[in-house]
Model the fold of this input.
Amino acid sequence: MNARALGDACRQLMRGGSRSFFTASLLLPARVRGPATGLYAFCRVADDAIDGSAEPARAIETLTARLDAVYADRPADHPADRAFAGVVQRHEIPRALPDALLEGFAWDVAGRRCETVEDVHAYGARVAGTVGAMMALVMETRGRVALARACELGVAMQLTNIARDVGEDARMGRLYLPAQWLREAGIDPDAWLAQPRFDAALASVVQRLIDESERLYARAECGVGALPRDCRPGIQAARLVYGDIGRTLQARGLDSVNTRTVVPRARQFARVAQALAAGIVSPGHPLTAGGGVEPLPAVRFLVDAAASEELPGRTFYQRTVRMLELFERVGMRQRGLA
Done:
């Protein structure tokens, strides 16, 4: 399979798996969109391999072996594996990041429950924060602040997924809402999972989760200005489009047990247009925006794995991007923004 066919196969996986991600990806520059598509394809294939397996624990073992082959530069003969192997080599993706992703999948297989919202953060860090970290590396961004915000954006998106899919998850025997919050609302988690139903008490828990996602989306926005300029509209679009899922769910009464919220295509494209307009002016610098510079505790290990002030053997393009980012930061300091 040649490079074009490989890219086409990965794009089909993205188009069929996540309309929101696909729509936002259209704003990414070609140099990033290709690797991002390969990254998404591998994550999508891994997720589907577990969900569609009669023996999910065995599927985890198989995926670990496939990851071993990727890092040995002998990927399996599958478009997603071959594309991801190229991403790993070109962008120096630490093995700790996809390993953490598989750990999150293993938590699903084990039926692990979330007692507190911090437990939900920890789960989100693995199944989505890892993708945020890898996307940042694909965009040649390795500063700790930007990485922290990228991971937090992933966690925010996962919280949105959980709020949207409460009923769908329950029918699969899964419950990701914090058990502590459920009990505070007068809901017994085990009894509810045995007979899922929507009521005002559950709505209050879903609302709390949406509020928490909004807090993390706000933190994540602070990191957009630390990305290369041509990457900012795409990431801003992803943030806006995904955030709209929670707002649409609120407008429809917060019932994610009996229905699945989908943001209309027209509204998605309106958010894309908004992101394009916002991309003309750099968002606030992460060092000055609310939320501080310290990463969410759940994502700190991802930031530690991915962060590096400088890497040996950078290409001329990579060195140029780094230099321009430094010039931009100096200019922001001179204007009193940092």
